[in-house]
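Q: What residues go here?
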């Protein structure tokens, strides 16, 4: 049975509505998946010193289907998101006060969106946002990062050798920073009547730039106690380090070295004498025990097996210890004696005539 034109039109309308709803659902799922793969990682707070530079670390991930897409990175300032701090495609859109002061430290293609702001000013403090826009139309905006601006507190360092009057000397002043946009200036403030000459250099160690200024001057005794200052300056701010000059007479310096050397030798000698006295005391403590010991031998006695009578064999007495060379030794209170005993042969005793004897000497 054929359908009427009206029924066919209603069915077509229903089919179109179902297709449209399915398309909208697929688009929503795709947008949700893309949003789930988009992520920007940034700190919540960053602090920078006024006059130096600020770096806001930033890294992002994107959906896999956007891997080859062209993208634009935009940094925005303040809560209203109206002030453009950096624009990777259209620099002319950057606000006037941020031009020539902002750049990215990495590459957007590698997911690095870190921002550097040179010559930080107090009005730069506030909220910052990063937005990435793909040529497909997909975009993502990060959460807020707060930039705090503090006073300039970093100071240079001064390294000086021993100061001898009338002898030229070289003093070094250094300042380390990770800011590459603005170059600091190192200047010296010296006593008015001291002729000087100076030169500067810059070296890099990792991400740190080391600015150095060398000062050559000749001091006299009259400059002892005066001040020498090294100052580091950026366009809006500066800080300094001051050194008190210690100028000593050369003869006084020699005597100082002699006294130090004498003190070291005296300490070594005192330590050696202490060790020697300790060893001597240990020897004196053990000496009485050795001197009081005396060993006296009394003549052994022979025990005859048949008569069991004893007869002295007449061996001489031997004295030891402190009695040597002092005549007859003193006989001990208890006698020293020798005892002869039969030795068994296997499990039986041998005849007395053939018995083997041994002697044991015991001291009381």
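A:
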């Amino acid at each position: 049975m054929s359908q009427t034109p009206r029924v066919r039109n209603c069915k077509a309308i229903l089919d179109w509505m179902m297709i449209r709803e399915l398309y909208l659902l697929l688009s929503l799922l795709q947008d949700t998946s893309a949003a789930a793969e988009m992520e920007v990682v940034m700190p919540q707070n960053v602090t920078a010193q006024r006059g130096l530079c600020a770096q806001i670390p930033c890294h992002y991930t994107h959906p896999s289907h956007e891997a080859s897409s062209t993208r634009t990175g935009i940094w925005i300032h303040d809560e209203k998101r109206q002030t453009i701090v950096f624009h990777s495609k259209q620099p002319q859109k950057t606000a006037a006060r941020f031009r020539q002061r902002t750049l990215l430290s990495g590459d957007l293609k590698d997911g690095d969106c870190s921002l550097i702001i040179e010559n930080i000013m107090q009005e730069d403090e506030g909220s910052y946002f990063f937005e990435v826009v793909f040529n497909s139309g997909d975009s993502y905006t990060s959460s807020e990062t707060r930039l705090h601006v503090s006073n300039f507190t970093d100071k240079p360092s001064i390294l000086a050798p021993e100061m001898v009057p009338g002898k030229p000397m070289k003093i070094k002043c250094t300042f380390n920073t990770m800011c590459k946009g603005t170059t600091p200036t190192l200047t010296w403030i010296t006593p008015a009547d001291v002729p000087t000459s100076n030169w500067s250099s810059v070296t890099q160690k990792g991400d740190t730039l080391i600015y150095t200024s060398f000062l050559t001057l000749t001091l006299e005794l009259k400059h002892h106690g005066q001040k020498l200052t090294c100052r580091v300056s950026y366009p809006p701010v500066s800080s300094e380090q001051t050194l008190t000059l210690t100028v000593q007479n050369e003869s006084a310096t020699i005597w100082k070295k002699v006294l130090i050397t004498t003190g070291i030798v005296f300490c070594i000698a005192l330590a050696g004498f202490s060790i020697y006295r300790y060893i001597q005391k240990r020897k004196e403590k053990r000496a009485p025990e050795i001197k009081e010991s005396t060993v006296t031998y009394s003549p052994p006695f022979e025990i005859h097996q048949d008569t069991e009578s004893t007869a002295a064999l007449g061996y001489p007495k031997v004295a030891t210890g402190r009695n040597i060379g002092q005549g007859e030794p003193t006989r001990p209170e208890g006698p020293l004696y020798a005892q002869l005993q039969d030795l068994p042969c296997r499990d039986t005793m041998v005849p007395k005539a053939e018995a083997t004897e041994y002697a044991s000497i015991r001291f009381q």
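A: Context that may help when evaluating the design: The longest helix spans residues 250-291. The chain is about 20% helix and 35% strand.
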